[in-house]
Amino acid sequence: MTSERLSFKEMCARFDVTPRTLRYYEYIELLDPDKEGRARFYGAREVARMKLILRGRRFGFSLEEIRQWLLIYGKTGERDQLVLFQELADRQLAALQAQKAELDSTIADLMALRATAAAEIAKG
Fold first, then answer.
1. Looking at the chain, which terminus has fewer C-beta neighbours within 10 angstroms, N or C?
2. pLDDT digits over 76-89, tens only?
């Protein structure tokens, strides 16, 4: 890992998050930057955690699920973390599949209504 340290502002810019979001992630203990006076600095560990947080959010995991996952990794090692992640992923995949099915149904209904409207327009 590199010894690069990012300032608060640089961290916000790198991950395209607001200062409020970054402070909130610290507040709920997802991130733990080095503090020098009022300044915060983020090393490689925090950058890696931020990547995981944002990936987890993109997949639809709650911040609490992400926090628990990161806490387990820090305490019990990689295997327990992977087992928990697998359980979370299975649950989230099921939810996403249900959302996809609902969206597919909605699209089909809208296409049918549009086709009906087009047919009525064609009749003139």
1. C
2. 667 877 888 889 89
Residue-level length of the chain: 124
Domains of the chain with CATH codes:
1-58 (1.10.1660.10), 62-124 (no CATH)
Question: Contact, 86 vs 50, CB < 8 A?
Answer: no
Distance of CA 7 to the CA centre of its chain: 22
At 50, the pLDDT band (50, 70, 90 cuts) reads very high
Closest among 95, 35, 45, 44 to 65, alpha carbons compared: 95
**Residue 61, φ and ψ in degrees, nearest 5:** -75, 145
Cα separation of 75 and 107, whole Å?
46
Q: CB–CB of 30/69 below 8 Å?
A: no
- Of 29, 87, 23, nearest in space to 61 by CA: 87
Q: How many other CB atoms are found less than 10 A from the CB of residue 47?
A: 18
